[in-house]
Amino acid sequence: MSYPKMAILKLFCTFLILRQGLAEVVTPTTEPPTRINGGQQVNESVPFQVSLQMQRRGRWQHFCGGSIVSGQHVLTAAHCVEKIKVEDVSVVVGTLNWKAGGLRHRAVTKHVHPQYSMSPRIINDIALVKVTPPFRLERSNISPVLMGGSDRIGEKVAVRLTGWGSTSPSTTSATLPDRLQALNYRTISNEECNQKGFRVTRNEICALAVQGQGACVIR
User: Most buried among 13, 18, 120, 219, by the most CB within 10 A?
Assistant: First the structure.
């Protein structure tokens, strides 16, 4: 399903994918949110959504989201894959429930942005993961994200955040939902974002949600 009048965002803490292009996103919050990722379940297909998973105690566990960008590549956050062995990663596509359904693919290579950094601030938090076998793009529920053009994303643009992020505001009580979650909100200007205390560059885009909802877990 496509969203013709909306920029589409994927869930990463400081990185989201927009239909008009790619950019990092900082989500300002003023108080702890009641739901980190949205507040409503997704009922329609999100064909570019993937679940990155690793085995823990003999079971596959979701640890990060990502977006299909080609027949064999997924775009995700660098902090998700920087320190893990790519051969331990599995990519599940074509499902709204990360625990059930969908097709499983094996990750074979990863490419982290060469200028990715976590200190003194997170920058270039982006990575590519290649999978095998190739995605079955002939299926209606599996397809690459629509990138659109390269024009600069401005303020007050409708955006959509999707993912399986924690529904708890604390890392100590983080709970992942089985069902994909979504949040619709809008971008704000970088100037306004800086005024709220977030240091951002032209490589980044800020999005502000009602009551502090967004992609990041409050620590």
Answer: 18
Domain made up of 7-45+147-212: CATH architecture: Beta Barrel (2.40)
Give the span between the Cα atoms of 179 and 189, in whole angstroms.
32
**DSSP assignment of the chain:** ---TTSEEEE--SSEEEETTEEEEEE---SS--S-SS-SEE--S--TTEEEEEEEETTEEEEEEEEEE-SSSEEEE-HHHHTTS-GGG-EEEES-SBTTSSSEEEEEEEEEE-TT-B-SSS-B---EEEEEESPP-TTSTT---------PPP-SS-EEEEEE---SSSSGGG----SB-EEEEEEEE-HHHHHHTT----TTEEEEE-GGG-SSPPP-
Band (27; pLDDT cuts 50, 70, 90): very low
Mean pLDDT value across residues 103-114: 97
Tens digits of residue pLDDT in 158-209 = 988 888 877 765 566 667 789 998 888 889 999 998 888 877 878 888 888 7
